[in-house]
Specification:
Blueprint: H1 2-19, H2 25-43, E1 53-54, H3 70-84, H4 86-91, E2 99-103, H5 110-121, E3 124-129, H6 140-158, E4 163-169, H7 171-174, H8 187-200, E5 209-216, H9 224-227, E6 232-237, H10 243-254, H11 265-271, H12 277-293, H13 301-313, H14 323-343, E7 348-352, E8 362-365, H15 376-397, H16 405-420, H17 436-460, H18 462-475, E9 477-479, H19 480-492
Helix pairs in contact: 3-5, 6-8, 10-11, 10-12, 12-13, 14-15, 14-18, 15-16, 15-17, 16-17, 18-19
């Protein structure tokens, strides 16, 4: 109604001004510009509420649906007790936990944990992303922070619930350390300040209890004011799963899939060290896709092995190297595999010279256990395995190639780890005070020492290396058990 009245007045005023001979073009342009600004800012919602998604009850996820994160789940459940036992918390005079920060690598289940927390506490769940708060217009971010807290309260009242959980993913975009932006744009700081104010306003006696759960894989970038007690009171580490956790995740993602009798999920869990929950879900999904392509009714162990390679390296490539290059790749991978199997028996799971992604060939190791602490001896052996491919080329073909570039980078990285961990001949040193010349010299000494060890190893097993390379060129791949038989038969011969 108001819009119609305003429009009528404007039209009438325009007719009157034209009748008296007044030039209304400047006024018309100003009105048009004002209308565009109004439509852009208000109708598009740049200064109003924004698209914070509500988590629907039909989509509920429980903690039982999340595998491999028992420590994180238990810690999160303990922190959620203040929402469940609000009356007891108030009687004890306990200050409410206002925020929980989930930290860890991508794909480890931080969002799933937040959704499960909403189901566990029977709370309204409002989700958004840190980037949703940032706009070029001053004050928009702060307005959106106020809007999401208001929406959380309104939804809880509408659904007759006493608590609401606000989930902010990638909070490092919103809550970066203040004063770090080169552009001196204060919009970021204003948005963070508003979030701090809203969290400070959470009380135990509020009709609707609000808990903020945030997720990030860059906790080091967050402003210290956000992490102090009274705001994000708890930090829950959601790390990559161990072998037991990987097995639990694989069981969850394969319970609705037809598995063949030869499938051993424990072996797959063992071979996927460093995989996140998202990687493991992708492995199970890709294995099912491979079985479907072959018109199989069930997924076999072979499909899972193929899926692991695909997730790690990408799809097989159509481009095929010439015969000379194929043999060089076979020699290179045979060197890696032989060194790995002799240094760490039963460590090789699969060797292939099939091109995937940026790799012309690949040797997949199968560690006996998940290691989190390394000795110098262990790191030196890993360096030897990285160097073995290039040295095998030199031994059998008389020259090296650019195919070892990544191997050398990894070897240097491990050498630096030895140095900066105080395990080298330099002893305990300061990384900042170590000169480039000293660092280069020590890295060179470590690499040369391991090169000499690998050369001895490969020369002593020259015939085994050549037989493995020939086998790889003919068959393109070798499985772990087949590799052991090949090595043993070559030694006996």
């Amino acid at each position: 109604m108001i819009k119609e009245i305003v429009l009528g007045v404007l039209i009438g005023l325009s007719i009157f001004l034209l009748w008296i001979g007044y030039n209304i073009l400047p006024i018309f342009l100003l009105v048009l510009l004002g209308g565009l600004i109004y439509f852009t800012i208000f109708q598009k919602g740049l200064l109003g509420s924004f698209n914070a998604g509500q988590y629907k009850p039909s989509m509920k996820i429980s903690f039982d649906d999340i595998g491999g994160q028992e420590a994180a789940k238990n810690e999160l459940k303990e922190a959620l007790e203040f929402l469940i036992k609000a009356d007891k918390v108030k009687e004890m005079g306990i200050r409410p936990i206002k925020g929980i920060l989930l930290t860890g690598p991508p794909g480890t289940g931080k969002t799933l944990l937040a959704k499960a927390a909403a189901a566990y506490t029977d709370s309204v769940f409002v989700a958004t992303n840190g980037s949703e708060f940032i706009e070029m217009y001053a004050g928009v971010g702060a307005q959106r922070v106020r809007s999401i807290f208001k929406k959380a309260r309104e939804l809880a009242l509408a659904e007759n619930k006493s608590s609401s959980i606000i989930f902010i993913d990638e909070i490092d975009v919103l809550a970066n350390k203040r004063g770090t932006y080169k552009s001196s744009h204060m919009e970021y700081d204003q948005t963070l300040n508003q979030l701090l104010v809203e969290m400070d306003g959470i009380r135990t006696d509020d009709k609707i209890r609000i808990l903020v759960i945030a997720a990030t894989n860059r906790a080091d970038m967050l402003d210290p004011a956000l992490l102090r007690p009274g705001r994000f009171d708890r930090q829950v580490k959601v790390d990559l799963p161990d072998k037991k956790g990987r097995l639990e995740i694989l069981k969850l993602h394969t319970k609705n899939k037809p598995l063949d009798n030869d499938v051993d999920l424990e072996i797959i869990a063992k071979e996927t060290f460093g995989f996140s929950g998202a990687h493991l879900e992708s492995v199970a999904n890709e294995a099912a896709i491979l079985a479907l392509r072959e018109n199989r009714d069930k997924i076999s162990q072979r499909h899972f092995r193929e899926a692991i390679d695909k997730v790690m390296l990408g799809e097989k490539l159509n481009n095929k190297p010439n015969d000379e290059e194929i043999y060089r790749v076979a020699v290179h991978e045979a060197g890696h595999a032989l060194a790995s199997e002799l240094i760490f028996p039963n460590s090789v799971s699969h060797v292939t010279i099939t091109s995937r992604g940026n790799a012309l060939g690949y040797t997949r190791q199968n560690p006996k256990d998940d290691y989190y602490l390394y000795t110098r001896e262990y790191l030196e052996k890993q360096i030897q395995i990285y160097l073995a491919g290039s040295l095998a080329e030199e031994l059998l073909l008389g020259s090296k190639s650019t195919g070892a570039t990544n191997d050398f980078q990894q070897a240097v990285k491990l050498a630096k780890q030895i140095i900066f961990s105080g395990l080298s001949s330099l002893g305990v040193i300061s990384e900042e005070d170590l000169s480039k010349e000293m660092l280069h010299e020590e890295i060179t000494n470590i690499i040369k020492q391991e090169e000499n060890e690998v050369k001895k190893l490969l020369k002593n097993n020259f015939h085994v290396l050549k037989k493995m390379a020939d086998h790889l060129k003919r068959n393109e791949s070798i499985m772990g058990e087949e590799l052991k038989q090949l090595i043993n038969s070559s030694k006996c011969a």
